[in-house]
Amino acid sequence: MASLATTFGRGAMTNHWVDIKNADVVVIMGGNAAEAHPCGFKWVTEAKAHNNATLIVVDPRFTRSAAVADYYAPIRSGSDIAFLGGLINYLLSNDKIQHEYVKRFTDATFLVNDGYRFEGGLFSGYDPATHAYDKASWAYQKGPDGFVVTDDTLQHPRCVFNLLKQHYSRYTAEMVARVTGTPREQFLKVCELIAATSAPDKTTTFMYALGWTQHSVGTQMIRTTAMVQLLLGNIGMAGGGINALRGHSNIQGLTDLGLLSNMLPGYLTLAGDKEQDFKTFLDKRAFKPLRPGQMSYWQNYPAFHVSLMKSWYGDAATRDNNWCYDWLPKLDKVYDVLQVFELMHQGKLNGYVAQGFNPLAAFPDKAKISRALANLKFLVVIDPLATETSEFWKNFGEFNEVNPAAIKTEVFRLPSGCFAEEDGSLVNSSRLLQWHYKGEDPPGEAKGDAEIIAGLFLKLRELYRTEGGAFPDPIRNLTWPYRIPASPSAEELAREFNGKALDNVTDPKDPTKVLAKAGEQLAGFAQLRDDGSTACGCWIFSGAWTQVGNMMARRDNSDPSGLGNTPNWAFAWPANRRIIYNRASCDAAGKPWDPRRTVIAWNAKATQWQGMDVPDMRPDAAPEQNVGPFIMNPEGVARLFGVDKLADGPFPEHYEPFETPLGTNPLHPAVVSNPAARLFKDDREALGSAKEFPYIATTYRLTEHFHFWTKHARLNAILQPEQFVEIGEELAKEKGIRSGDQVTVSSKRGHIKAVAVVTKRLKALVVDGKLLHTVGIPIHWGFKGVAKNGYLANTLTPFVGDATTQTPEFKTFLVTIEKA
Amino acid sequence: MALQSLDIKRRSATTTPSAGIRSTPELAKLIDVSKCIGCKACQAACMEWNDLRDDIGTTAGTYDNPRDLTEHSWTVMRFAEVEPEPGRLEWLIRKDGCMHCADPGCLKACPAPGAVVQYHNGIVDFHEEHCIGCGYCVTGCPFNIPRLSRADAKVYKCTLCADRVAVGLEPACVKTCPTGAIMFGTKTDMLKQAAGRITDLKRRGFAKAGVYDPKGVGGTHVIYLLQHADRPELYSDLPDNPSISPMVSLWKGAVKPLTSLAFGMIAVGAFFHYLVKGPNRVPEEREQEVDQ
After folding, report:
1. What is the ipTM of this complex?
2. In this structure, are B50 and B140 located in the same domain?
3. Are residues B52 and B168 in the same domain?
4. Exposed end of chain A (fewer CB within 10 Å): N or C?
5. How confident is the model over A480-518, as pLDDT tens digits?
6. B58-73 burial string, b = 16+ CB within 10 Å, else e?
């Protein structure tokens, strides 16, 4: 999500599931949609059947997606930036870009600070002591008027376009083949198929998932694709875009609501501990336009933030106390999951609540997670299932060899309902909030999650009220306006996220006109104010439950355009837009690049943007005003140059996985792996080398199962009962392993045993002159449930995270394999 | 089983003519292998609709699970990794199960009256209450589909969800298939649909794409769309030219009329014998002997 926000302004899938049917070329890379998203994958089959689309799959394995692809190319796991960087080079060298789009809708013409450099694998500003960059030089040049200096001729050597060309000129087809193992001809064939959609009326759509996010360079992998799509002019177009396929039904909702340690709802952010001053905090986030006339929608940040605080603290939040700014935590560092378990491992964090979460199975290096959990005083597990985490202290023989007598952690298991046992909304990959109704009561003593959290909160508040404590105010003053305080309903929570008027909200252009009366639900985030007259729990969800009612429960699937837009089906954030950045589907004059797939167009008579979708643009902004289509970016355009948004560089660069099978980086041998990635000291020592562990391993999911849940369900267990690992025929022959044999797979951190599946679908690749084998490791087994007990696959994985998001590198590490 | 007697076209081991007044279109399930991703949703739907639960098995080194059809698993996905041309890997995934032949070997082979029936719409169904567990249908099937249960000595196989179809619903596997690889309708419509898909596949480089609707069994009501229709054996040994075992054909074909004729001749002979010779009478002296 960080990569898409850096490039386009919002961290979300740009198009939506149904829209995939409009694509000319579908690329599945960094994911395996047929396997992990079989229902959504139907839109790929629709594109093939009704839009004559070509499906390309690039993956280390010949996957279920590859089984129905028109073209498959193998790639070494972890080398995608080299492949995509090569694609950028191909597009630029063969002049296969959408010129008008690139010039008008990206920062290609922007000049970059003279201090910015990329040399020998490092960007300017690197500090080897802290493994971090000083990003000051990663910036645009600004003129005396405060706006960025541009060169519309694209001739200036410091313009983004030329820096981009220069950066990726190293990614030749030969270099790509050498780094990725993809045979040169196959790489070029993929380039050729994708490049054909640089025509203004052709589109490629990319579908990716954890195959890109779970790398130490994951964010940058996705960003490379975002840049490719900009060069091809495919963002904002029906049948284009970058489709980030979310792995849980509501994981988009998780990020939307800011359930990350450094986030607030709606992608608002928490302050750092240096940001004690409220005004500075807001100014830093309310981006002023970097080019004349741009919307720079984050200028409304104060309205979103103040409305959030009014929602949380009601009358206690006043202008005089900076809307309770002092009650918000200020971060000294990011407390992501790796950091939290590192602190737990060090004994510095001693209580943990795992809600709908199975960290023993889901986090890297199971042994470390297990040791960390054993350091806790208490562990609360809120889950519908008896998870491995909740029984980490119990000995399950070879699958969990611990000594319960030595573990003092007190574990509380609070059984919760599952999604079908409560009302509420789920946000899917398409940013669609769909309301659903409870099918059953939770069994036995289980309670809904809201009820459990409410119970904990009310008890805590009582303690703070009676006993005081170090900092009671934020808890004591939290608004809790629910009819049954011990059990807030989904409807109440949804209305709160949408927001309401606390005072009459009037039209800024005509103060006599009341847009929303005090007490009414707001129609959308345009009505939010920074003066305390509105309350809103999550600004991007505003519009989901208006005065009219629950927009998420709408079920009108009429599709007037025939493009699958269904504007009256549920509610999509932001503002019910289905294809975001849709202004970019039209040329400078406001005419659609492809009239067959008109999303919106400028209607000169009505002086309005109109179409099948809600315009992602000020509705009356005439094309000649040159308001850019990427309204969240202060530039107004999308960023090919990522400025200082990511921790590891403004342009994506190929770095080797932390456990590299090559031991070098053919692009720059001195800098092998991501210099800014997250790696704690002890974990660096737990990394293996190719000498000891010569095979690339990658973890993944299977259609028959969902993470670590469905091994508890008999149907799924019947369909895929027992843990296995996959190896290619060459490696099997070398090791004397036959299909069905028991094998042991070991990494520096531990070992697992499983049945071997010997397959033609995993081929050895020649990388940098070496023949490299891959071992495939499906993740779904463990020691709880009805499927055959097995090892947690994360026994093997390394504790290293992406530089920006700290997502662990589950997709590439080193192992060895032997017949058990 | 939910279908009524009016729907029955043929019953096993029955000479009584079936009802013939109802006109029912011939139905078919089209399995488009080129669209199948092997997700096994059809297997799950089959188990759920029919309330079947197989054992939780083991992994034998392939994705196939359960490994084979059983009395609880009426359909399974069979995964085949093949290289029809050197270097061009294909993962051909075929949903295996009853083909609902127009000329069903199981029905022909079955000696139990009404244990196997064929409906006018083409569905071939087992009526287990009449099944005697002889297993002849297993021998009779050219596709190796029926499975004899050890628990109750009855045979089981896919019913094409006859109970759903009878009330206007599609089979459960069709309903659940996420990619539209399994379709259901009149056989005419399914062949038309397949023709469109064949054009598309040919354009995508599968010159021999075609329908699998084998004539040896009179055509089937489950038809496959194959990328390589000229080589069905690539699809986990789908038979090239299936036909009913000669033993069954012999038993029900040539031999059965002969034996029936023989039985008939004996009856006729006996009758004429009666006419000519009259009833068999025991001589009185013999009766007396017995009495003593």
Report:
1. 0.94
2. yes
3. yes
4. C
5. 999 999 999 999 999 999 999 999 999 999 999 999 999
6. ebebbbbbbeebbbbb
